[in-house]
């Protein structure tokens, strides 16, 4: 899950990964204007974006409590054995929908452990303890094999062959990372903690990458420049639950069942 930061003493807004993914899919569906081309193939890109964290459903459904925080496990504090399972399960799910969805989902998994294919300086695999590194490496090796197999399958078809051309495929990978990190900008931090931030390497579909800058406004909206969405503004929302830290042994399954979801909304306007 994503346990959003908060001001001391206030409950945390807790977002299930599936709900995070669904909003991210809506971000993908809204992308595209005169400057930024909509993703191609559009339906498959929206689908894989909306389901990029589908493997987390079973993990989130455990409703386990973190002994460190008294809250559910946060995304970055999830025990690594669970992370290995979710990292494989997401590409498994997406491949059943379409080979291209499985390919991009697998790249998303591999990239999270390996510096996003050079887009990030953070190499997660290097930070993993030796007692679980072998399991992580086996999972990642299997993902590379999956990618090779799916690329070969897609290249054999005249329509999908162009989707796996190196530049096209990597542009779509970069778009998936942008959609995800834009959603995480809102989901990870409470409103008062959101600051001016840049999103690097956002392709326009015309051969050029851009740096997009987001900044909160005084009226609660966020400027984004250059603006990659249809129209002059766009609004997204995500459901979650406001939860406070609980004593050890709390029944979070019951707490989740008895706590109604609320929506958190975010408005972006052209900078």
Order of helices and strands: EEHHHHHHHHHEEEEHE
How far the N terminus sits from the C terminus, by CA atoms, comes to 31 Å
Number of strands: 7
Strand order in space, largest sheet:
1-2-6-7-5-4-3
Shape type: globular
| Poorly predicted regions | none
- Range of strand content: 15-25%
Q: What composes the largest sheet?
A: 7 strands, mixed
Rg from C-alpha positions? 19 Å
Q: Which structural class fits the helix and strand makeup?
A: alpha+beta
Note the total helix count: 10
The structural domain count equals 1
Helix content: 40-55%
The residue-averaged pLDDT reads 95
Describe the 3D structure.
- With 271 residues, the protein is α+β, with helices and mostly antiparallel strands.
- The protein has one domain.
- The protein has ten helices and seven strands.
- Strands 1-2-6-7-5-4-3 form a seven-stranded mixed sheet.
- Helix 1 runs antiparallel to helix 2, helix 4 packs parallel to helix 7 and helix 5 packs antiparallel against helix 7.
- The longest helix has 26 residues.
- The chain is globular and about 55 Å long.
- The two termini are 31 Å apart.
- The mean pLDDT is 95.
């Amino acid at each position: 899950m994503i346990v959003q930061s908060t001001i001391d003493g206030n409950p945390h807004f807790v977002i299930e990964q599936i709900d995070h993914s669904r909003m991210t899919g809506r971000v993908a569906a809204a992308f595209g204007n005169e400057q930024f081309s909509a993703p191609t193939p559009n339906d498959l890109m929206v689908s894989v974006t909306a389901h990029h964290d589908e493997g987390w459903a079973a993990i989130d459904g455990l409703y386990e409590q973190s002994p460190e925080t008294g809250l559910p496990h946060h995304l970055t504090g999830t025990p690594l054995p669970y992370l290995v399972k979710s990292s494989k399960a997401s590409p498994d799910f997406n491949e059943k929908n379409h080979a291209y969805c499985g390919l991009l989902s697998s790249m998303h998994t591999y990239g999270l452990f390996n510096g996003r294919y050079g887009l990030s300086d953070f190499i997660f695999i290097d930070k993993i303890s030796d007692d679980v590194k072998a399991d992580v490496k086996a999972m990642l090796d299997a993902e590379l094999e999956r990618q090779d197999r799916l690329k070969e399958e897609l290249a054999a078809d005249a329509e999908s062959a162009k989707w796996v051309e190196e530049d096209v495929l990597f542009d779509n990978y970069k778009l998936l990372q942008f959609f995800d990190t834009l959603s995480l900008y809102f989901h990870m931090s409470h409103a008062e903690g959101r600051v001016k931030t840049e999103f690097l390497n956002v392709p326009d579909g015309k051969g050029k990458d851009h740096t997009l800058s987001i900044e909160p406004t005084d009226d609660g909206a966020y400027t984004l420049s250059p603006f990659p969405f249809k129209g002059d503004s766009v609004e997204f929302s995500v459901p979650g639950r406001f939860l406070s830290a609980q004593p050890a042994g709390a029944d979070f399954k019951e707490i989740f069942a008895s706590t109604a979801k609320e929506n958190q909304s975010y408005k972006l306007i052209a900078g």
